[in-house]
Design goal:
The chain is mainly alpha-helical. The chain is built from 8 helices and no strands. The protein is elongated and about 70 Å long.
Length: 206
Amino acid sequence: LFLGTDLLGRDILSRIIFGARVSLVAALVTVSLGAGVGSLLGLLSGYYGGWTDTIVMRLADAMLSIPIILLALLFAVLFGPSLSNVVIVLALAMWARFARLVRGEALSWKERDFVTLARCIGASDLRIIFRHLLPNVMNPMIVLATLQLSWVIILEASLSFLGAGVPPHVPSWGIMVSEGRAYLTTAWWLSVFPGLAIALLVFSFN
């Protein structure tokens, strides 16, 4: 009982360790989905241009304009709080960031000589996109993904704090901070230690 217990006698340390699984699963699954969908759409948008580019970018602008917290609260009211709902909401918000980044990179790379030579020898569009463009946009994608992991962890904790994240019976850092906020003067460890766990994990990814 190194970090004390909560009001029901549950060990804070074991709940923090278990809560790390919730944050990491949410972050990894959300970033994987967002990066996969967003990068594919960004590659298609940047390579083909025209109406494809217009439609994808307008969808991305629309998604970036929607408040994530409001969307998550709407999902929680309609379908109830759950980890899967959190992943869906955050992935919907995240794909647009990857799409805009990858589109910009694809617009630059598709004008290079090696892409022109690939076209000259009869390479298909899909081969050019996945064999020549995708490897060259991986570096900025990886950088953005590591930054988005931190963003997802903070958002998941915020949604759980508001009651729109995982169900209340699941040990989550956001829920632990929320449960302890009324006892900061008498049992400060209830909120402080989960809050420190969030901060350390976010700093480590950054």
